[in-house]
Amino acid sequence: MKELFLGLDCSTQGLTAIIIDFNSFRILSKYEINYDRDLAHYKTQNGVYIHDDGITVHSNPLMWAEALDLIFFNMVKDDVPLQSVLAISGSAQQHGTVYLNTKFEKNLKNVSPDSNLAHFLLNSFSRKTSPVWMDSSTSKQCQEIREKLGGMKKAIKLTGSNITERFSGPQIRKFYQQQSEKYEKTHIIHLISSYMASLLLGKNAPIDHADGTGMNLMNIARNQWDREAVEITAPNLMIKLPPLIKSYEIIGNIAPYFTEKYGFSPETLLIAWSGDNPNSLVGVGLISKGKAAISLGTSDTFFGYMENLHFDFTGEGHVFGTPTGYYMSLICFKNGSLARERIKNQFKLTWSEFSELLLHTPPGNDGNIMLPYFFPEIVPLVLNSKPYRFGFSENDPKANVRAVIEAQFLSMKLHSSWIKEKATEIHATGGASINTEIMQVAADVFNIPVRIFEQANSAAIGAAIRSAKSFYDSIGQYTSWIEINEKLSQLLIKEILYPNENVTKLYEEMLFLYEKYEDYVLRGSENPEYFRQRFKDKYGKK
Ligand code: ADP
Ligand code: XUL
C-alpha cells in the first residue's frame, strides 16, 4: 500500500512539491512552479523585486499563495493521488516576513473552492510586498538593535547570530520606522514558512524553532521569544508574533478549501513548516557529527550539523535550530547561482558549455583571482556590489568561469573556519549541485569527499520526510532518524567526488592569496600582487 507524504518548498525562484511513498521509499512525483515563467503577471525577476538602490529586495506573498493553488491544480490535472497524502510539511526561504491585517484569518475561513486563494487574500496584507533574505537595506536598524541589546557578542549569545540585515527583526524595525501607520495596522507578522502553513491550515500557524532562530528575536537556548530583543525591535511586537512550536509538531488538519478543491482527505495532517536550510539538513541526511552540506540554490550556503552550541563571534556565521532538535552552523552567500548565471549569460553559454570551460582550465586559474561581488554580499559584508578581477579581463570566458567558481568555494572555506565540528564529508544540494564539474572544484578546495545526489531538491525532500516521521510517531510507530537516513541514502546518492590530491597544496596557497585579496579590497591592506605573481610562477602556464 502506498503511504504518501508531501513536502513543499517555497523558495526564492519557485515552489516545488515532492511526494514520497514512504513504504517503498520512492519519489512518486515532483512538480515545480517557476515564478518568473509561470506567474509572469507578478513581474518578478528571479522571484524578487530588486529596488533601484540595489539593497532593498522584496517579493510578493500573493504570488506565493497563487503558486500553491497552481501547483495543486497541475497535480490534480495529472491525476496525482492527493487523496492518499497522509501528511504535509513545508519549507520556505528563511528570514522573509509577511505582514497581515485582521482580515487574514476571516478571509482564509471564507475562501471558496470555486475561486482561488489569491482572490480571497487580496485585502489581507498590511504591507503589500515582503522583504526577503536578499534584502540588505537595514544596516541602520541593525546597529540600533545591536547597541540597545548590549553589543554584538550579547546579541550572538542570545539569538545565535549577530543582528543581521536580512533577518526578520531589523526588517520589522525598518517597517515600523518608515511606515508606522501600516505597522500599527499589522495584526500578525509571519515568516514565509508560517504564512504558507497558515494558508494550508486555514488559520494562523505557529513558527517553528528552527526557522525562528533566523529572526534575531528568539532566545536560542530557551526556544522562546526573547522579551528584550522583541521590545527593542519595535513597540507592541510581541502581540504581533505567532507562537513558537517544535518543528516536529502537528499543527492541525488541512483546511476544507483544499479537500473540496483538490481532493485531499480531511484527515491529512499538517506538520509545522520550517526554513529551507533546516529542511535541507534533513533532506541531505545531516543527523550526526562530522557532516556538512553545501547548498547551491539562489543563495549558496554552507551548513553543518552541530551537537553543542557554539557561536561565531566575528558575527559572520549563524547558529540555527534544526528540525531534529539540535543545532546547525550556517553561512550564507548572496553571490551564488545568480553570480554564476551572470558569467554564463555574459558569454551566452549553456550549463554544459560552462562546465566544459571549467574542465579545460587549470586549477589555480593561472593565478587569476576574482572577488565575485556581483550583488551586495552577506559574507563578507559588502553593500556596494562590484566584481573585482586580478590578472584577467572581463572578456575572457575561460578565466571568468573558473574564477567565479574558485572564488565561491575559497570564500566558503575561508569563512567557515570558525565551525569547530570539522566535516569529513560534504553533502551537496541545490540547483547547481547537479553540476559535477562545479562540485569537483568544491571537493578539491575543501580537500574532502563531496556526495552529490540524484535529486537536488533537498528542502522539499526534507519537508516530506519530516511530515512522515511526525505522522508515524503520532500513531505510535516510532521511526528513528537513523533508520530514515539509511533509507534516504539508498534513494538519493548519485556519486561521491573525491578530492584530487595533486591540487591540495595549490588550493591551500590559493586560499592564503584569496584572503589577502579580501583584506586588500575590503580592509585596505597592502596590494598582494607580489604573492599573486609568485603563485602564478609556481602553478601557472609555463
Ligand atoms: P532556489 O531553491 O533558491 O530557488 P534552486 O536550488 O532551485 O534555487 O537552484 C536554482 C539555480 O540552479 C538556478 O538559478 C540555476 O542557476 C542553477 N542551476 C540549474 N542547473 C544548473 C547546472 N546544470 N549547473 C549550474 N547551475 C545550475
Ligand atoms: C540563509 C539564507 C538563505 C535563504 C534562501 O540564512 O538567507 O539561504 O534561506 O535560501
Helix and strand arrangement:
Elements: E1 4-10, E2 14-21, E3 26-34, H1 35-38, E4 49-50, E5 57-59, H2 61-77, E6 85-92, E7 97-100, H3 103-110, H4 117-121, E8 130-131, H5 139-149, H6 152-159, H7 168-178, H8 180-184, E9 188-191, H9 192-201, E10 207-208, H10 209-212, E11 218-219, E12 224-225, H11 227-233, E13 244-245, E14 250-253, H12 256-262, E15 269-271, E16 274-275, H13 276-283, E17 291-296, E18 300-306, E19 318-321, E20 327-333, H14 337-346, H15 351-359, E21 369-371, E22 388-390, H16 397-415, E23 425-429, H17 436-446, E24 450-453, H18 458-474, H19 481-492, E25 493-497, H20 504-523, H21 529-539
Parallel strand pairs: 1-6, 6-15, 6-16, 10-13, 17-23, 23-24
Antiparallel strand pairs: 1-2, 2-3, 4-5, 5-8, 7-9, 11-12, 14-15, 17-18, 18-20, 19-20, 21-22, 24-25
This protein binds adenosine-5'-diphosphate and D-xylulose (XUL).
Adenosine-5'-diphosphate is lined by residues 11-14, 297-298, 337, 340-341, 351, 430-432, 434-435, 438.
